[in-house]
Amino acid sequence: MEHSVAEFIRFDRITKFYGPLCVVENLDLGIEKGEFVSLLGPSGSGKTTLLMMLAGFEQPTSGNILLDGTAINDVPTHKRDMGVVFQSYALFPHMSVGENVAFPLQMRGLGKADIAGRVARALDMVQLSALVDRRPSQLSGGQQQRVALSRALVFEPRVVLMDEPLGALDKQLREQMQLDIRDLHRRLGLTIVFVTHDQSEALTMSDRVAVFNKGRIEQIGTPRQVYDEPATRFVAEFIGETNLVEGVVDAVQGQEANVRLVSGDSIVSAVSGTVTPGQTVFLSIRPERVDLSEIRGDARNCLETEVTDSVYQGDHLRVQLQNAAHPLIAKLSRRSREFPPGTKVFAGFSAGDCRVIAP
Amino acid sequence: MPMKLTKFAFASLTILFLIAPLIAILPLAFTSSVILTYPIPSWSLRWFEELFTADAWRRAIVNSLIIGSGTTLLATVLGTAASLGLRNRALFFRGSIRTLYLLPMVVPAVVLGVGMQVLLAGFGLTNSYAGVIIAHTVVAVPFVVVSVTGALAGIDERVELAAESLGASPLTVFRRVTLPLALPGVLSGAVLAFATSLDEVVLTLFVAGPNQRTLARQMFSSIRENISPAIAAAAFLFIAATVLIGIVVVLSRSMLAKQR
């Protein structure tokens, strides 16, 4: 198989069975050096299993995992040189913070003075120098995860693997840690594979997001691509909120298609895959891309609707609409005027703000 | 309130029921009389003196220590290894194998004793220290397995995976992570194994020769031959040793816990 030279990690037709259950199915994925890739998906979609295979905790049933061009299927975990961060922190409870961080360096046979220096720097990096002699049980969850992070980075591993590392933290701390990890990634040029089921986390942190479903990758791309150009219905629904409207393709011109909705309206929409006239498709329209006005505007797509409900949610106004055949949701900026239920409005959006998805 | 009082009374009575035999025997250790009965004419330490000077008793104490140490060592190693093996979830018939390990706890000691004698005779191990230690180990291993399995169950598997990913070979993971974390359970198991060996009479009757008389065995035979208060003194020694070991275990456990 041809792979690009810069490719650092390659999953080559990986399949994994647990008994009769197929958790990863014939999966191909390449990751470049210095890249931050998130594996995003619901639980049971195979993302954690893939990470465990990369770490060497699990063996693929078939297929190869290549690191820097060499197959590592037969390399045991302790020789793979990968730092792993778990959701449960997995610190050594019988060792102090300093001893925890020193552990990987001792395993590599470094001298005492060298170890002390590196541990100090690694703890400094996560602002925990003052807690070097504490036991993990004396730390908060956030502090424990930062110790785990510095322990996974201190030996300068070739790859850093993170398995839902922020899942056990509360929302505010989680958002802070997201930015901290992103910052570390940029500063140290790390290659990070990050498993999460939280789509906003994946969008915030990653260079690329791989969306998993039932042991397969549904789509891989930049956060902008997977959000704005969902390739499948699953991706459109899993990442963010979306309006899915059924219709039939009338005509295709280049990257745009005319779609006739059940209500009879005709919509011009961007297409990512290939569709043919006469095909039944879904349109994905992001609620925040919909504009409302009481007069028919100059937007290319315009649906005549009636407001059924309108909820003020602090940072935005959420309006539920209904036209002849479809419900529709619009998220409006909070500066927008109120739309009381019963108001007749036109919902407008551009062709680039909706996407044709083949079912 | 009456409910509380009833509970308290019931608990007290149960405890009394459990320790009444101890209360009955212990004062007799300090009697000056030559027979093992109440009332006690006057207090004396002569039976402790007898215990440590009379040849039969002294040898019994030494034998108990030799056999007890041997059993502790062997049972702790085997029981810990078994517990580690039983962690493997992919193991076929894992539940059944675990039950097999616990079987000696419920099989009548007489049955085990007969089987053990036949078996050890086949290997020429009757009337030897090794034979007695092997016999005691069989009944001591279940206690170690229960204790160590409990300790291992408390270890987050991901901690060991993390150690492996940080560059520790499986052996190093065991030495630096698994064993230190399971140590309280291993220690308890060792103490239970020692106590089991100390206390074991039935198997000893079957497999031990006159040279391997343990303290328990000696007490058992001397109560039939001459009911001397030396038995009470030996019993006192037993209980004192048990309490001491218990205190050591509790202290070391709390020290280990404080480290966490």
From TrEMBL, chain A:
CDD domains: ABC_PotA_N. The keyword ATP-binding applies. Keywords: ATP-binding, Cell membrane, Membrane, Nucleotide-binding, Translocase, Transport. Its EC number is 7.6.2.11. It comes from the Bacteria. GO terms for molecular function: ABC-type putrescine transporter activity; ATP binding; ATP hydrolysis activity. It catalyses: ATP + H2O + polyamine-[polyamine-binding protein]Side 1 = ADP + phosphate + polyamineSide 2 + [polyamine-binding protein]Side 1. Part of the ABC transporter complex PotABCD involved in spermidine/putrescine import. Responsible for energy coupling to the transport system. The complex is composed of two ATP-binding proteins (PotA), two transmembrane proteins (PotB and PotC) and a solute-binding protein (PotD). PANTHER family: SPERMIDINE/PUTRESCINE IMPORT ATP-BINDING PROTEIN POTA (PTHR42781), SPERMIDINE_PUTRESCINE IMPORT ATP-BINDING PROTEIN POTA (PTHR42781:SF6). Belongs to the ABC transporter superfamily. Spermidine/putrescine importer (TC 3.A.1.11.1) family. This is Spermidine/putrescine import ATP-binding protein PotA. The gene is potA.
UniProtKB/TrEMBL annotation, chain B:
PROSITE patterns: ABC_TM1 (PS50928). GO terms for biological process: transmembrane transport. Residues 61-249 form the ABC transmembrane type-1 domain. It is found in: Cell inner membrane; Cell membrane. It holds the Pfam family BPD_transp_1. Belongs to the binding-protein-dependent transport system permease family. This is Polyamine ABC transporter permease.
